[in-house]
Design goal:
Elements (H helix, E strand, L loop, with lengths): L1 E5 H15 L3 E4 L1 H5 L3 H7 L4 E4 L2 H8 L6 E3 L7 H7 L2 E4 L2 H10 L3 E6 L11 H13 L3 E7 L6 H24 L7 E5 L11 E4 L20 E13 L4 E2 L5 E2 L4 E7 L14 E4 L2 E8 L3 E6 L9 E5 L5 H8 L3 H7 L6 E5 L1
Parallel strand pairs: 1-18, 2-3, 2-9, 3-4, 4-5, 5-6, 6-7, 7-8, 8-9
Antiparallel strand pairs: 1-10, 10-13, 10-17, 11-12, 13-16, 14-15, 14-17, 15-16
Length: 346
Amino acid sequence: MKVRIDVHAIRHNLKALRLAWGKPLVFMCKADAYGHGLRRVAREITADCYGVATENEGVLVRSYTKAPVLITAPKKSEAALCRRYDLIPLIGSFSYAEEAVRLGLKRCHIKVDSGMHRLGVSSPKEAARLAEKLLNGGVRVEGVCTHYKSGEEDTIDEQNRRFDRAVAAVRQSAAWKGQNGKIITHVTAVGAEKASAYDLLRVGLSSYGYHTGASIGTPLEKSMRIESEILSVKRIKKGMTLGYAGAFRAAKDLTACTVLGGYADGVERSEVGRTVLCGGRRARIAAVCMDTFEMVTERVDLKAGQRVIIMTDTIDANYIAKFRKTIPYEVLVGFDRPRAEYIYDG
């Protein structure tokens, strides 16, 4: 299967988001750039700041840029990489803070749990204590951040209030300890319309063309397209079956095509019944195996080698996610498989 990445679309989206919100952005390129291929994306995309989950991802991004690189899920066992490659961990625990001090990390951001209950300190008092521990150990606290648990207006307002109290506590601790300079704040872009008081916005899914709740008044461009090809074509009669255990039974005479790409490639069994494109017209997925899927249509003009569009602007990750009963994030990263052929445009 071919994964086509439109790098120009990612650039367009970041520019549109920055202009709409009037803020510098943290370009989230974790999870292999949401399945788009981190090596190529990091090389091609210029951003104010980059965000990844792990230190190893950060090391890769650092090889392409001198801009700040944030580590959102730092591990104690890899903390030394932050010092070696000038990566910025988001620290939300006293355990990691101790390791940061022991290793002599130069800088960090503090992570505040404002309602997600995943990572971060959960009260202004804890935030102040964590800041003091880091500052006492020579680690500069350059920022404070949080992650919204949802984009609902009431939820955002409440989380902002909790976050603001923690930010104030950290800034007070920094002042007491004699740290000069601004402490920046950043939140996820799902709450962009409520984030005017903060310095940065972290943009993930919207960078790749999918709105996450905050309208910007301009279309985003989807940056991933999935293609494959027909391996074989056959006519099947009414009552004939396709797939393991006869997963599909024809209700009438049809054309059935075996298409390269199965659940080992990111096409899941739950997608049976959804449409794909071939020759500009829609066909249906009838059965999914490990390496291939069966596509059925009433057309009789299809041939082996013909291109099949599995995901595109009109048949996008939102559409596929409905069949899988999941979210578009999972769809995008799901096509990032070892035998995928990546093709970059723009």
